[in-house]
Input
Amino acid sequence: MALQELHYTFRATEPQPFPLGWSHSGVVGSGDMEVMFERCMLDGEIRFKVVTPVRGFERVWEQVLGRFVNETNLADVSVEINDNNATPVVVLMRLRQALKEARKEAEG
Amino acid sequence: MITEESVSWDSLLQDTRARLAAAAPYVQAGKQVAAADAVKLLEAVLRPGDKVNLEGDNQKQADFLAGCLCRVDPAQVHDLHMVQSVLSLDRHLDLFDKGIAKKLDFSFSGPQAGRLAEYVRAGKLEIGAIHTYLELYGRYFIDLTPRVALVAAYSADRNGNLYTGANTEDTPVIVEATKFKQGIVIVQVNEIVDQVPRVDIPADWVDFIIQSPQPFYIEPLFTRDPALITDAQILRAMMVIKGIYAEYGLQRLNHGIGFDTAAIELLLPTYGEELGLKGKICSYFALNPHPTLIPAIESGWVRSVCCFGGEVGMEEYVKARPDVFFIGPDGTMRSNRCLAQTAGHYALDIFIGGTLQIDRYGNSSTATATRIAGFGGAPNMGCDARGRRHATSGWLRCGEEYGLQQEMTGGLPRGKRLVVQLQETFREKMTPGFVEELDAVQLAKNAGLALPPVMIYSDDLTHIVTEEGIAYLHKCADMQERMAAIRAVAGYTDIGLQEDPQETAALRKRGIFKTAEDLGIDPARANRSLLAAKNMRELVHWSKGLYTPPARFHNW
Amino acid sequence: MTDWQALQQKSFYEATARERANGIVDAASFTELAGPRDRMSSPHLPALGEAIEFDDGVVTGVGRVGKHPVFVISQEGRFIGGAVGEVHGAKMVGIFQLAQQAYAQLAAKGADSLAERLPAVVISFETGGVRLHEANAGLLAHAEVMDQIQNARGKFPVIALIGSKIGCFGGMGFVAAATDLIIMSELGRLGLTGPEVIEQEMGREEFNASDKALVYRTTGGKHKYIMRDCNQLVEDSIGAFRTALASALQQPYAEIARCRRIGSEALVDEQLALAELSCEIQPQDARDVWAYFGNADAAAIPEQTTADFLRTVRRRP
Output
């Protein structure tokens, strides 16, 4: 079965910009993922594209990504995830780590 | 009316004498029987329907005798009732394939779980019950007394005195139950020596000794390579240390097997030290000699470790730390599983371990619909010891917090064992760790078991730790609240998705549910740099070269 | 983006491909080319339902070591075992082509500045060889990389770094052998057929792949160093690899090229003599060979620290 592409769009309540023009982090190991953030004008939205071999977890992805947006209020950023069986815990952890790294880098 | 002549009070003894006489042709000097005669010996002493204990322990296996038992003539020896704690070798089930054995009472069958379930379905094997270790040992002295025991020892002298050393494990309890009910004890030994290092089993409890062609098989069951510990496991370990160990000042512990507990052990000298907890937690363990405990021992955290069994490669290290381990006058460890389980049941303040499934009420099990894995000792540790009458501060504190204390004891002080399950909300391939109904229920139906094999019942469980946080279940006032707390830690599983955020917020306010942030833990710090040892070689280094890992773990 | 100082202390074995690429060249000098943002992922894996990575499992780019432009290829073992597919291979070849261009430009400026600023290609291997999902393209990529290494001969050095989890096996074992200089840590493993495949083909009696100690004795850095299949052995840190690389690049090109273990008639004769020797001494284990070359306490070698080992080891003459 071919790889699956999932798309999600959220709108943050108090929109915050992504701290860098773009940022990449993570490795697509087994049970892991990589993520690419790219700042772009999306009218206050945040868009996710998830590429994953796992089927049947569309709702879980929506919940996990929604939680990340709620926590961070990120807006006007496109997020692409290449997944290889990462569990929701790992997904959240990687997204948080990636943002933290980006903030650190932005601060110089 | 019964006449005096018709009563025989020593029929077992008479029968044993007859069997021993039948075995006489195979006996050489003293009690020795040649390996080549072992099958004939078994055919001479076994009778159809006998209860037979084939020593299969958590680690040590009487594998040579198991192979011999598989080769007896099924026309002569059949329908045996096997009573043994662990089913781990193919041979243990081959016996049922060949019709040599029919019924099984046991404790743990992890390595053979799939095949065991298949045999039950096919009607090849009838399960009496799945026990915990202590429960099974208890029954050896009540209604499951072996008629013949086939056991393993490191060495024997020519009279039959046995040395069982670091892997004494089940041997004393099996031999005592068998011999003191006039049964027959046959031992495979790695070597026959002039003098054993120490006498673990006295010669007059032993009938036959056989030098096996190969040393007995032993599994390095408790070795975990730190290289495989994940960040999520480190996060859970940090929460356990801060939110449970430090919170209750826990000094007497048992760690279940797994990478989660290995992570806890490897965080003591780093994260634990940083929190200033040395001497305040983790001083006494009932625990196998986990290689991952070495850094904590070497940094002076651990005062005593009582072992259920040995661990391959840890022999020299253990010998060199007699202040910490239980070492005999000969200088080597002895591990008596029955005593260690008793110690664990009564003298610990906490059990912590992983599981496969937790249901929405908090019952947990490692069984799945097609695998009968059994329990081992976890339920003896993972339950409140209702007979306990000595107080420690953590135990009392847990009792004070217990939501049903007032209702059940009218307010008399009584402590409670902490029983903690470490759980990943999803395992590999997105298998959920929280479920509506345990697979064990379906398994019980499939296998015709009277009881679903539940490892830890909800009423014993006090805490669940997931990456979402810690649920302090014992603080709950009723089942409704308990189920809400479980939903709060169940993440994105179907159970977790039923969470009501307001309900969770209320539980958080009352300290029934705490997240990593609530505990003052920065999840971004949860990475492998916190581990006191990151690979097997660093464990060897910590041990000052005394630990020698088995070849399959020697990755350098 | 990455704390270069911290990377120097980091275990090379545990580091990701990107961390290695950044850490083995001078601070803040690495520029990634065809990086994740270019999204050059495999066109074949999606149809098979296999996860993809933006960089197809290899980090490529250019950095500096002293005055030398260093063209870096760093493979990521966590992504499909570092296996080489079409894009992964093309990226490797592309780096060689860039190095050739840089060489040509510098050569045009004259010999003095060329020696001082001689480019180099450095490959941090972590791979089992061909990616079976795209095997034909992967095999072709191996051939092309070999070809590039031959094209580089006589011009600029190609240096192999091996010390990552997967090791360097399969076709890439040949590629590594064809480089000028091989630097390993004792945790690095180098071979052609992987241990599991040997066990599968020859039986467990012949080679027990789950016996990790045996696998390391046969393919690990210390053994390769004794046999002179690798030139240098360093501690397991990115900094140690960088230091070794930097001091190698201070040598004249001819010195580096002299480290080659294959590629001349004399070297072929030397290898054939080794094959004869093995028939003669019939070793049952690598330890027998170590002892033959004068390491009296061969059994102790795996337990020695790298420093102790380097101090006392007797290598093949």
